[in-house]
Amino acid sequence: MSEQATNGQTSVDEEYEHHGGFPKFTAATPGPNFGPFIEAMRTLQDLAVSIDAPDDVLAEARAQAEALAALLAPYEAKEGEATGGRVIGLPGRGSLLMLPWMIEKFDAEGVRSRGVFRRYHLGGNAAAHGGVLPLLFDDIFGMTVHAAGRPISRTAYLHINYRKVTPLNVPLVIEGRVDRVEGRKAFVSARLTDEAGTLLADSDALMVQLLPGQQ
Ligand SMILES: CCCCCCCC/C=C\CCCCCCCC(=O)SCCNC(=O)CCNC(=O)[C@H](O)C(C)(C)COP(=O)(O)OP(=O)(O)OC[C@H]1O[C@@H](n2cnc3c(N)ncnc32)[C@H](O)[C@@H]1OP(=O)(O)O
């Protein structure tokens, strides 16, 4: 986290400490099995939404899933301490909730990320579910204000234009930036394109810096 002063009085670290108990996020460096474990979990998610399996296979899958949950349950950690979401070098920063995309650029000028929507993200007729795109945009906006050195902010609104059907399993690119700042308000925008530059969706959002005590 940057120590850079944001308004001449308060550092970003101080903002984190005083705003609603947000944990201070630092990068995690898990062992070599964490990335492959998350990828295996993503494959399971793809299969869980796409299989048509007989019940005896489901009984075995259920037993194995319950055994896996029992293995992992003792290691549950609180927000800011769990590994997922804090591994910059992994798709989706190692969080299963996030799209499995890789950050390519992360600075005050903006954030760029690249990846695919998978079977798990299917909406209808081979296209990504319309509800998954706001997750991608909201995450890029969170990273964009973070990379711009802004204090912890929350999304006040997020507007999306769905310009073209977003395909599964095709490499796509999203780029976000801060357009302008008015006090606590950062107006941000982002574009989702394919690798040829065809616009699939664009979004603009308002990220409001939290006041002391706000959650
Ligand atoms: C080193 C490795 C570590 C790895 C990590 C690296 C990357 C880290 C990345 C990320 C870090 C995590 C960051 C998380 C971020 C996630 C973002 C989200 O998804 S947040 C969840 C969804 N959003 C909510 O739940 C908000 C719910 N709403 C609220 O809490 C409030 O409404 C809030 C705070 C947004 C504003 O409320 P008020 O009471 O503080 O302030 P008021 O006066 O209402 O608004 C302030 C200004 O904004 C305008 N405003 C507010 N809402 C507006 C709206 N919907 N439309 C237009 N203007 C609005 C108002 O008109 C006002 O403007 P005027 O100052 O008068 O000019």
UniProtKB/TrEMBL annotation:
Residues 1-11 have a biased composition (Polar residues). Coiled coil: none annotated. It catalyses: hexadecanoyl-CoA + H2O = hexadecanoate + CoA + H(+); (9Z)-octadecenoyl-CoA + H2O = (9Z)-octadecenoate + CoA + H(+); tetradecanoyl-CoA + H2O = tetradecanoate + CoA + H(+); octanoyl-CoA + H2O = octanoate + CoA + H(+). Belongs to the THEM4/THEM5 thioesterase family. Keywords: Apoptosis, Cell membrane, Cell projection, Cytoplasm, Fatty acid metabolism, Hydrolase, Lipid metabolism, Membrane, Transit peptide. Its EC number is 3.1.2.2. It comes from Antrihabitans stalagmiti. Residues 128-200 form the Thioesterase domain. Residues 1-25 are annotated as: Disordered. One of its GO terms (cellular component) is cytoplasm. Pfam families: 4HBT (PF03061). InterPro entries: HotDog_dom_sf, THEM4/THEM5_acyl-CoA_thioest, Thioestr_dom. One of its GO terms (molecular function) is hydrolase activity. This is Acyl-coenzyme A thioesterase THEM4. It is found in: Cell projection, Ruffle membrane; Cytoplasm; Membrane. It is a peripheral membrane protein. One of its GO terms (biological process) is fatty acid metabolic process.
